[in-house]
Input
Amino acid sequence: MRLAIVKKDLCKPRRCNKECVRFCPINRSGAKCVEIIEDKARISEPLCLGCGICVKKCPFRAITIVNLPDEYERRAVHRYGPNAFKLYGLPIPQRGRVIGIIGPNGTGKSTALKILGGRIRPNLGRIDEEISWSEILRFFRGSELQNYFDQLASGRIRAVYKPQEVSKIPQILKGRVGEILSKIDERGLLREISKELNLNPIWNRRLTQLSGGELQKFAIAAVLIRDVDVYLIDEPSSFLDIRERLKLAGLIRRLATKDKYTVVVEHDLVVLDYISDSVHIVYGEPGAYGIFSLPRGVRVGVNAYLRGYLREENILIRDEPIRFKLNPVPIEWRPEDLLVSWSSMIKVLGDFKLYIEPGEIHRGEVIGILGPNGIGKTTFVKLLAGIIKPDKGYVNIQGELKVSYKPQFLAEMELEGTLYEHLKYNVGVNPEDSHIKSNFLRPLGLLELLERDLNTLSGGELQRVAIASCLLRDADVYLIDEPMAYLDVEYRLIVAKLIRRITEERKAATFVVEHDIIAQDFVSDSIMVFLGTPGVSGHAYSPEGLHKGMNRFLSDLEVTFRRDRDTGRPRVNKPGSWLDRYQKEVLKEYYYMAPLEEPEH
Ligand code: ADP
Ligand code: ADP
Ligand code: MG
Ligand code: MG
Output
């Protein structure tokens, strides 16, 4: 089976020589394999030989040809149109269980949720036909999905969907937070949920005045208070801090009672692991096709994902497994490695006051910064970068130090011209250089974006551009503010590895502000904890070892983590569970470094 994909937004036949049409060997023999229809290239899949000439000739990289085993066709669930994305398989909702979905962006996770929510009727890959519900039910015969769609089609169950892109909500919904939520409180849960998610401070605000994290909490509340049968929740933890992520995870778990279906797409593996009973891994080629794997238990599923190999399907999703360091020996920094130190500092911004304990960083050190939103993390990073000055205290830089900064808000970047021009003129590197291509552009998926205008890139693409721009600059200190926002799990792992490698190779020191605990655990040697009252006052502790810093941070949250015995990844203990109490009361360890569980035989 051959899939020919034409990315509509990239194909611009008026701006190229239509070489895809001219050079196609099938076309030359008189048939019509590639044509221009409605101003886009249209490729006939039955005629296509998979020679790949059109793929190479297209200057905009709009064409992808993939070969898939024929037996996949039997699982085709939906295709958006001719030469468009194709989805194989679906996650299987189950009453009383939370089903988690992990996978790269562009492989059909949101599409699957929209199908389960009844917003898209699946066409089983047959784009020219109207498929009846009875045929769809026949297609899913023998699986739970048959029963599910039967109930959905006949209106016996209803679904709500929390969209992935919360920033679009104010365009379709007008009003104030409290007003809107009070009108849809069908389960009488609003009071409890708004307390958990701390909605009080924004109760009277208009949606247009909310930050990303505030909109996210509003959207989650608006879905959870509805009295329906199916809850479809797309990327709930984006823009939230760790406390909010854990609260949200707890809420979703508690509300997934035995009569409800819940399906969650999530890239933060700690959150996904904590929320889900079982997981589906999605793989494929972003933008071209996606395949839902069979469900796995959550522990086994997340581990398989990290290992990068799906045994039952015999699919390799990554060349190398992701491993976590256990019991790292705290690093003894040598005096000659000292790079920057700071005295105790105070910075006042409007009503907000930040106190910073003295500290120092060393060549080769990655310091993770942890703390809630609105506590002064970005302010601290800006003080170090010299963008703002402290009211009291000073930053002591040894000699001339070059600082490279990735801002949290990508709107702070200049977005003119193509990525190629940006790299060449703003960053000052040669995008053709083979070292730069193989170490930065290829792993970050930027090679195929070189000719794109920066202002046409998606959030995730722009984030990768921002990270590359920061790390490509030769610097002594890298300040990386919330790099994982908008990124899927796969890129989070790639970015974490790249940050480590650059820091070590260049003997630089790197600060990473990030709410994803797995990413922090993977990347950081040391941790700097910020505590206090968001928006009012913040206290920044001196950097300390990973273990000590995590303990300080988590004991404030009253959350304990254990280690998975196979992969070493951190996992949240259920509050009040035996391990949770044992770690708090006996071990006094909120962040356990070595696996505690007995191996399974
Ligand atoms: P994910 O949620 O895994 O990131 P999506 O389900 O949003 O992926 O999208 C999968 C693919 O389908 C993407 O390549 C996207 O561009 C494409 N797609 C999404 N919606 C449509 C649509 N309405 N028409 C055509 N293609 C679409
Ligand atoms: P974080 O990065 O931890 O989320 P920030 O450092 O961005 O927090 O902000 C900390 C607090 O300072 C917030 O309450 C923010 O509203 C406030 N703040 C930030 N910049 C300014 C400013 N220029 N004027 C007034 N208040 C500010
Ligand atoms: Mg999505
Ligand atoms: Mg910030």
